[in-house]
Amino acid sequence: MATSLKGKDIINTKDLSVEEINLILDTATRYEKIMDEGGRLMNMSGKVLCTFFYEASTRTRLSFETAMLRLGGQLVSVAAATTSSSAKKGETVFDTGKMVQAYSDVTVIRHPTVGSAQELADGSDVPVINGGDGAGQHPTQSLLDMYTIIKEKGKVEGLTVALAGDLKNGRTVHSLSQLLSRFGVKFYFVAPKALAMPEEITKELRAKGVEITETEDIMAAVPNCDVLYMTRIQAERFEDPAEYEKYRNAYVVTMETVKKAKKGMIIMHPLPRVNEIAVEVDNYEGAAYFRQAANGVPVRMALLALVCGQE
User: Fold this and answer.
1) Which of 59, 74, 98, 219 has a Cα-to-Cα distance from 111 of 20 to 30 A?
2) What is the pTM assigned to this prediction?
3) E strands of 119-211, at which residues?
4) pLDDT for the residue numbered 235
5) Among 8, 61, 70, 110, which one carries the catalytic annotation?
6) What domains are defined for the chain?
């Protein structure tokens, strides 16, 4: 039976089979080729996307909305949903799901609370896509990250990937490590001890036989990795501003860093960057982070069309 994502919620990378992952990336590749050749897609004509963003977003929100428009669909959007929706009146995320199914064919949510995307999905009969739930998961980011690695390096199998920065609170690295672990990737987890990758993730990966090196020294990873994935220290996750200041410049990639890198290493970042990558590094041919951001459009086009059965 052919793989299908019709009607499926996209909440956690662990919920996706290898076949489903390949279907998403293959569909994104096909859509990107059509657009590059000047073609138009109308797969989502007559369909409506609703986006609920309870947290600030630039790339995720704009790329989902661009994706829907490029598929010929329409959208309704609630930005700053904490203050501009009925959440301000006390409406639960579950009840929002009950409501929004009457208005849209697919919904994207970003929310500061872990588990919020699942709560919306529990209340909704239309597919729900998790655009980031607090320090939990960001599955669509990890899919576009994998898509980027394949475009930049030609494959993911057998690569060594360093994830660096705030691994404790970084939902992007939580999703990405779990996604790439299925494809024979080796990892360096680079973080201060207080911001290390959560133990439940490292234990789960090691139980599956994934090779992981944990270190606080980024230069232990740079000469050995094919992909350096930087993340910012997330000020909004710290209750004490002094703690944030303590770690905010823990890792800064400069051209001196690049000079010591493995040949062909690419640098990625989910963005926004704060100080983690010096602007001078933008001229490095392996600086892939802005190309990475652009890849969000075809990947999210594929997701929207697939979960709506309009591929």
Assistant:
1) 74
2) 0.91
3) 128-133, 160-164, 186-190
4) 64
5) 110
6) 13-137+296-307 (3.40.50.1370), 139-293 (3.40.50.1370)
